[in-house]
Amino acid sequence: MGAGHAHRLYRHGHSPVHGLPPHTKLAATFAFVVVVVSTPREAMWAFGLYAALLALVAYAARVPAGFLLKRLLIEVPFVAFAVLMPFVAEGERVEVLGMSLSVSGLWGAWNVLAKGTLGVAASVLLASTTELRELLLGLQRLKLPPLLVQIASFMIRYGDVIADEMRRMRIARESRGFEAKGVRHWGVLAKSAGALFIRSYERGERVHLAMVSRGYAGSMPVIDEVTASRAQWSYALALPVAALVVCVLGWTL
User: Fold this and answer.
1) Is 220 helix (H, G, I), strand (E, B) or coil?
2) Is the pTM here over 0.85, yes or no?
3) Counting CB atoms within 10 angstroms of each CB, which of 24, 63, 216, 239 has the fewest?
4) Which residues are listed as membrane-spanning (predicted)?
């Protein structure tokens, strides 16, 4: 899969969680999210236990709470949507602090906030303990369609290239005295976006021709064969299994 590619979410460490094979962590995270989504929203105590399980994982991975909370800000748009639900939903109403709110909207807001936050937190923990290259290898090991893995790989590798090209174009505009201050400057920005698209397309063609000339036939060679022992699978699946017990109790109690 080529050389490694660090990302801002990754936190370098040597914890037991960092050392797990990537495909075990991917499977565990997916299973945990499925269990959380399957939990009835009325079992509010269950979501507190899920949060405690994630806190234990963060402690084992040596991921600080501040690091985790800062990256949870990505879900702010979903929080805004959830806050609006009690005001716009229909059905039975209830008075809260002098405001008429929908009961179904309140439950819906809680459902989105609780399950969304837990899902994002699990994803952040996965990204904090697994490098992008390892994630791609894990997806490949889990038999994800090779074409999707290649698309994700190219997107990751050349995202920074395009971002750097945008930075150079911005510096070139500013060196010529350009400052976007209003609608009248949108034309210049639109032309820059068009030029960036053309350059990216041409770069993609050159990269593809270079790959074909080196023997590329639609699939990338596997350099590292990632395997996992039974003990590593047991360690990784401890989180979703514990969550499954909580989910079952949430449905039965």
Assistant:
1) coil
2) no
3) 216
4) 43-60, 72-89, 109-127, 233-252
Q: Which residues contact 43 (CB under 8 A, 6 or more apart)?
A: 249, 250, 251, 253
| DSSP-derived 3-state class of residue 102 | strand
In total, the chain counts a number of residues equal to 253
Residue 95, Cβ density class (10 Å: 0-12 exposed, 13-18 middle, ≥19 buried): exposed
On the CB side of 228, CA atoms within 13 Å amount to: 21
**Cα gap 31→21, rounded to integer Å:** 16
Q: What is the mean pLDDT of each run of 10 residues along the chain (253 residues)?
A: 58 91 95 96 95 96 91 85 83 80 88 93 94 87 85 80 85 84 81 88 86 78 75 94 96 89
Query: Residue 222: how many CB atoms within 10 A of its CB?
Result: 12
Q: How far apart are the first and last CA of the chain?
A: 48
